Amino acid sequence: MPSSPRDKDATWRSAGALCREFDWSKRRLIYELENGLPYRTIPPGWTIDWHDDYVWPYFNVEAGAISIPYGMGFAAIVPPPPKTFWDRGVTLGIEVLPPTDAEVPAPLANTPAALPTPRRPSDAAVEQCFRGIMKERPDDPPDEKDMLAEMKGRLGAPPGRERVRNIWKTIAPQWKRPRGHPRNFNSAKKSAV
Q1: Strands 13-14 and 90-96
Q2: CB–CB of 188/142 below 8 Å?
């Protein structure tokens, strides 16, 4: 499909901007271009066959450009009349029109839904969670990895390693085991008997 007849400069987007706006990957953008998403080239008038395999490796979405070296992809890119033979390759800027509200396609079936970013728990919540674990396990302290996993499960978000270490130093220094000390105090006592 050649450049679109609709030519409102304010609505054209670079390929990278459109992908960020609609949360599309390069694959999704090319899929939409293959299926008629309007585009224009800079310089104008060039036609790109988006179905051609030469387009993929030479299309830089972030830069919004296709750079085809000389001798590659002659079928993928057709220059405007008069058809000239380029001798050093060609680099074309690509701009696309975002789909209107009625044209916005549904996400592809294999596209994962965006997960909400977990909120960072407050210092008070982290300390309260730590104290709760201390009360439940006074003689069986977990190691740092297990403590972080347990707190993340209880708080619903990671508590932050440094925050837990600082709380550990101030509230429960007796839980900090020296290097080489067995992980479980009770199993160490049983094995010594």
Answers
A1: antiparallel
A2: no
Residue type, 34: E
pLDDT, tens digit (0-9, with 9 covering 90-100), for 33-59: 888 889 998 888 888 888 877 677 788
Task: Note the pLDDT of residue 82.
Answer: 63
Q: Which residue has the tokens 């790109």?
A: 48
Map tokens 């058809």 to a residue: 83
Taking each helix axis from N to C end, the angle separating 144-155 and 123-136, rounded to the nearest 10 degrees, works out to 120
- The domain spans of the chain are 13-96, 123-192
Among candidate residues 23, 13, 12, 16, the one with its CA nearest the CA of residue 61 = 16
Q: Rounded distance, CA 1 to CA 38, Å?
A: 8
| Contact by Cβ (8 Å): 39, 94 | yes
Q: Are 175 and 134 in contact (CB under 8 A)?
A: yes
134 and 171 Cβ atoms separated by less than 8 Å: yes
Retrieve residue 63's tokens. 């830069």
Burial class (CB in 10 A: 0-12, 13-18, 19+), 158: middle
